[in-house]
Amino acid sequence: xxxxxxxxxxxxxxxxxxxxxxxxxxxxxxxxxxxxxxxxxxxxxxxxxxxxxxxxxxxxxxxxxxxxxxxxxxxxxxxxxxxxxxxxxxxxxxxxxxxxxxx
Length: 103
Fold this sequence. Notes:
By secondary structure, the protein is mainly α.
């Protein structure tokens, strides 16, 4: 069975998501999430949820979608997740707005 590169990325992202949440976003200098880079992704997402008065479940859903969307721009899951984090600092519902529909 042959799978596409996009499908492979999705599979990889699913398998490492818990590991990613325990890492710190330090791959890209600058960005909206710069002040959160001393935290794990998990703690940064909690802070973003608080900043936007959103539930952690909603932010986690946005982050999951965002990491997958940003994989279109990089081969690194960590960089894709860091880009998603930057966008979520800016707007908590960034990926819902981007899609034009509710998640």
